[in-house]
Amino acid sequence: MSNRYKGAIISATPPTTTGGPTGTASGAWTLEQQMQLQAASLWPSQPPPPFIEDVFSCFLYTGNGSTQTITNNIDLSTKGGLTWIKGRSGATGHRLTDTARGVTKSLASDSTNAEATETTGLTAFGTTGFTIGADADYNTSAATYVSWTFREQPKFFDIVTYTGNGTASRAISHNLGSAPATMIVKQTDGTRNWPVYHRSVPTGTGYLNLTSAFATGSGNGVWGDSAYNNIAPTSTVFYVGSDSEVNGSGLTYVAYLFAHDAGGFGLTETDNVISCGSFTTDGSGNATVSLGYEPQWLMVKASTYAQSWYIEDNMRAFNLTSRAILFPNLPNAEATGATAYLAPNSTGFAAVNGQLNASTTYIYIAIRRGPMKVPTLGTSVFEPAAYTGNGTDPRTVGTLQVTDLAINMNRSGAGDVPLWIDRLRGPEVYLRSSGTGAESSGLTGWLLGQSGQTINGVRNTSPTTYIDWLLRRAPSFMDVVCYTGTGSARTVTHNLAAVPELILVKSRSNVDLWAVYSSGVDATSPQNYGLFLNTTDAKDLDVFWNNTVPTSTQFSVSTKDATNRSGGTFVAYLFATCADVSKVGSYTGNAGYTVTVPCGFTAGVRFVLIKRTDSTGDWYVWDSARGIIPSNDPYLLLNSTAAEVTGTDYVDTYSAGFEVTSTAPAALNATGGTYIFLAIA
User: Fold this and answer.
1) Entry pTM
2) pLDDT number for residue 28
3) Which residues pair with 447 in a beta bridge?
4) Which of 512, 420, 422, 467 is nearest to 643 (CA)?
5) What is the DSSP letter of 595?
6) Where are the domains of the chain?
7) Which of 153, 311, 363, 447 qualifies as a FRET site for 415, CA 20 to 30 Å off?
8) How would residue 455 be classed by pLDDT, with cut points 50, 70 and 90?
9) What CATH code is assigned to 582-680?
10) Strand duo 68-71 + 129-132: pairing
11) What is the spatial distance between Cα 167 and Cα 610, in angstroms, rounded to a whole number?
């Protein structure tokens, strides 16, 4: 595939044209070049390539019983698409409304009913989302809902409406740009099932029914000729038989078409964002599925066993420790629990904990996790949220659009801080960077969501003061990876899309140190050294990282228990330098003088983490919510339960980065001392 640059089609190697991003020796697009292309609008004669966040959204909201506009940044009014809404807290019907049929026209995947007109349902499609009225299935006051929005886009999703003619082997044109891998069809003007074509269902007469828990059906000639044989769809047409489920004479239908590994996304337009496949569980009900990316949304159905359809997504509880399942064929409320059925990983997902049927074949549709775009603003991926406890339970803190990692500290000091909570592991489990303990559970009510996070009363005691550092995963900025140790040197795949410069690894299952990799710990061979987040120790000549520098797709771990104990479970937090957003680096101290640390920013820093590496020193943290101002820079320590220290003037911000002042102690500014840092704009 090609890239689009200044309105012209060019090769997949970096351009060297004057005025454009410069080429690299490796011939690969660098993240700096990607950001230049994104930010400079260098596609004037044709639209820029799409990213998953442009075409799919999983958005949670709470009903208000009136009207409200859901802003998910998906352009439906000019691009077209489908919005699928389901109540989470109540037994309300699924509601599917699309731009091809128009607003207020809904279908229910849990019903065979014809299309309904709901004047207070979905009332408008917009360029950044949609508007809903007071209908109970969309917007009951205080009820919780999820909306899944699919925008029409070649090689992702398409909508086709047509009138049946009763003939077999009928070819119907589409604009998916690749052969549909899954097709869901519904008669709109009458009572009828929802037949489903899936590429993994037997090629004879097999089909599934979205409204039913039954296994694969056969014999109806739904997708084929007069002999009832299925005919595989192509990149331009799909086929229906004469059966009234899909092609009754004079009847009207809508078809939702989904692609499979068709590329078309990202700056090179070769990235896959949707996959339709199958897997078979082992005798214990477990399985591993490789997609080449981490999914955010998953729909699964047993094709050889009568079982309901499942939908999980990472905005609700598609994680390693819990579940929140909705059933397309049932109006039931969300089914939650403390045991995961399906769990995402950096390259796909797995059926875990023996929760699926043993030795059973399942089909799936998986959608890639976003964002895929490199961020250009620190405020889009980081927020320091300071608050005073008021005793309410629950309480929402912060306004970050999506929170993937929260680091919570009691500023008064307490034995259970700092707490690290992330979306991938699950909102009710946490780690403490002040100690070596394994993962703990019990943070009931903690929810990493949209527009901040919901916390329970345990972290909201009146009048205690707290700080939450809220971070979102994004290319070149931050990633979270969970893996299982092997005891043998190995690589771990990540999705940072840049070379990690700071890696924090902690065993989830065992008591052990927090191992830290830093590119700034040594000028020539940082891969040979380790630091420990939970101690003040200087750098240690160790082999946690198998003497191997990380790459833009993998990092290495050795046989050490702290990073790769056999059978142990681990979490890794990865950070990189992202222009105008974050800077990972190092500096040398100069006691009695101010040390200026440029980060390439334009409006200073909002977060600074510093650790001395050539001698002992704490892990100091400052942020703009508590104040980075002359004469009073309150700091906390990630390796300690100590209370916040105020009244010092050790760090100041300036437009391009930060300064370490002349009054700072040796832990921050000793002559010849070496220090690493993470700064966020």
Assistant:
1) 0.93
2) 42
3) 454
4) 467
5) E
6) 3-40, 52-151, 157-258, 274-368, 378-471, 478-575, 582-680
7) 447
8) confident
9) 2.60.40
10) antiparallel
11) 71
What confidence score (pLDDT) does residue 216 get?
A: 85
Helix (H, G, I), strand (E, B) or coil at 583: strand
Residues 6+ away with beta carbon under 8 Å from 170: 239, 240, 241, 247
Contacts of residue 620, defined as CB under 8 A and 6 or more positions apart, other chains included, come to 608, 609, 610, 611, 635, 636, 637, 650, 651, 667, 668
pLDDT of residue 25: 33
pLDDT in tens, 406-445: 999 999 988 778 999 999 999 889 999 999 999 998 877 6
Residue pair 434/440 in contact by the 8 Å Cβ criterion: no
- Nearest residue to 85 via CA among 113, 106, 64: 106
Alpha helices in 123-185 (DSSP H): 136-139
**Per-residue pLDDT reduced to its tens digit, 199-236:** 998 766 688 999 999 988 776 679 988 777 889 999 99
Predicted pLDDT at 45: 54
**Side chain identity, residue 204:** G
User: Which residues have CB under 8 Å from 165's CB, separation 6+?
Assistant: 247, 249
**Coil vs helix vs strand at 383:** strand
**Phi, psi for residue 245 in degrees, rounded to 5:** -60, -30
Phi, psi of 379 (to 5 degrees): -70, -15
CA 241 vs. chain centroid, Å, equals 39
